[in-house]
Amino acid sequence: MLDDFLIRAALAGIGVALAAGPLGVFVVWRRMAYFGDATAHAAILGVALALAASLPVTVGVLVVALAMALAVTWLAARGQSMDVGLGVLAHAALALGLVAVSFVPNARLDLSAWLFGDILAVTRGDLAVIWSGAALVVALIGWRWGRLLTSTVSEDLAQSAGINPGRERLILILALAVTVAVALKVVGALLISALLLIPAAAARAVARSPEAMVLGAVGIGILATLGGLGLSLRLDSPAGPSIVAAAAVVYALTLLWRRP
Amino acid sequence: MPRLRRGMSGAVARQAPVARAPAETPPLIEARDLSVRYAHGLALDGISLTIRGGEIVTVVGPNGSGKSTLIKALLGAVPLASGQVIRRPGLRIGYVPQRLGIDATMPLTVGRFLSLPRRRDAAEVSGALTRTGAAGLEDRPIARLSGGQLQRVLLARALLAGPDILILDEPTQGLDQPGAASFYRLIEEVRDETGCAVLMVSHDLHVVMSASDRVICLNHHICCQGSPNHVSEAPEYRALFGEGTGGALALYRHAHDHRHDSGDGHDHHHNHET
């Protein structure tokens, strides 16, 4: 059954939706959208470095995304306004990555596949990486759920309850780096944060509890994956952007639904 | 009795008799010569203070005087530049933050909020809400509470921990004066019932002062401290806040007495919807 490229694509998308749901709600609640952008944009640099060092691409992406996320956090802890700093970092990382890729010798890499994803070319090996990454993210967030939620509500409150909000932030950063690494193949560096943001934002309209919002985000993510793949098949449109477009349509519908 | 305090100016604080705090109990929290540094200088400089069981201590001071930083330092949430904070081992702190970081995008009901980070059973939750005059709000989203309701919910959450000390950072921000007064009265009642100590930060000088056993006037260092009457007459306090607050203090006392005389002592619930 896994021989069918469409089945593999669907499974890859579902795997990513499983990781993006629980992480995405925190991206929304903590207003980390731009943060996700910066981390994801750094992924291209990770691809270039991994190819140059003959390392698995996932490893390179993971390391660079983690470094980027830590750099952004470090900056955020020092300055007040993050807009400019994040913008500079996000675009610098993307530009640097694109430059670095051009220097990789005998690079037979398809740049647009890394930027926009190539979900239809997912292999069994990719599936294994995506699903283990997703399992890791779900386990991490599930394990820390109460603490993460409390630190999101109020860092001072968390502190007074014996929770270290800094450690919880690191957990989210780790989860973000893993998600970027596994989602790169599916939607590409440019649209990863859309996949984090849009299903979670859509779930907000229908959820009554934090946990329901996570389930909603996962469900909407899966729906968008299947819808996007169907769209792509029918219209011969690029798969990754079609998935994000499908998610955006769901988001728009939930906005209408919410209106009394 | 607490030892003499040293202010930045080297002035020795006048120690007035403390109304209620029994001196023989071990301190719940003690700060010794505590300093906190920020990028542009010292936020707190050489603070020494002691909080004992059952006393209500209020920290007053102008904006930017380091009040919230002091609270965070006592909670262990900011690194100290020097000095130390000693919390009694096993001390249970009920903390009421200045505000919540809850984004409107987070669907969080009051009941669920009270169950963070630990699950509490429904009876416990509704008991705490009833005690603080917020009964029946369990299913209301946090983001839709009024300022007064939110403060009572935050207090209910702090009480669920069974605290030895309640720490409140500007608990009446955004409340009007009657609302603030009734909130302070609630805190006093909770102290009388549970025997917990209370440490709060406020800039509602006139309202809060008479509800306190001890007032600490802070401006990066401790300017003066002691009973409300003592502090409101101290020259350091007057230099910071002017002469006008004395009259407001008297005014509040009048209102305070009046409220208590007008009923059986439990007539505060009528304005809890504010």
Topology:
The complex is a heterodimer of chains A (260) and B (274).
Chain A lengths: L4 H25 L3 H9 L1 H10 L4 H22 L4 H21 L7 H6 L7 H20 L1 H9 L1 H6 L4 H23 L4 H13 L5 H26 L3 H20 L2
Chain B lengths: L28 E10 L2 E11 L4 E5 L6 H9 L6 E6 L5 E4 L13 H5 L7 H10 L15 H14 L4 E5 L7 H18 L2 E6 L2 H5 L4 E6 L1 E6 L1 H6 L1 H7 L3 H17 L13
Parallel strand pairs in B: 3-7, 3-8, 5-6, 6-7
Antiparallel strand pairs in B: 1-2, 1-4, 8-9
Helix pairs in contact in B: 3-4
How many distinct helices of chain A? 13
Shape annotation of chain B: globular
What shape does the CA trace of chain A take?
globular
Query: Largest beta sheet of chain B, briefly?
Result: 6 strands, mixed
Q: Might you state the CATH topology name of chain A?
A: ABC transporter involved in vitamin B12 uptake, BtuC
Distance between the termini of chain B: 40 Å
Main sheet properties of chain A:
none
Oligomer: heterodimer
Could you tell me which chain pair has the largest interface and how many residues each side has? A-B, 27 and 27 residues
Q: How many H/I helical runs of chain B?
A: 9
Tell me the β content of chain A.
under 5%
The residue ranges of chain B in which pLDDT falls below 50 over 5 or more consecutive positions are: 1-21, 245-274
Helix content of chain B: 25-40%
Q: What do we call the CATH homologous superfamily of chain A?
A: ABC transporter involved in vitamin B12 uptake, BtuC
Distance between the termini of chain A: 45 Å
Helicity range of the residues of chain A? over 70%
Structural class designation of chain A: mainly alpha
Number of strands of chain B: 9
Helices and strands of chain B, in order, run as EEEHEEHHHEHEHEEHHH
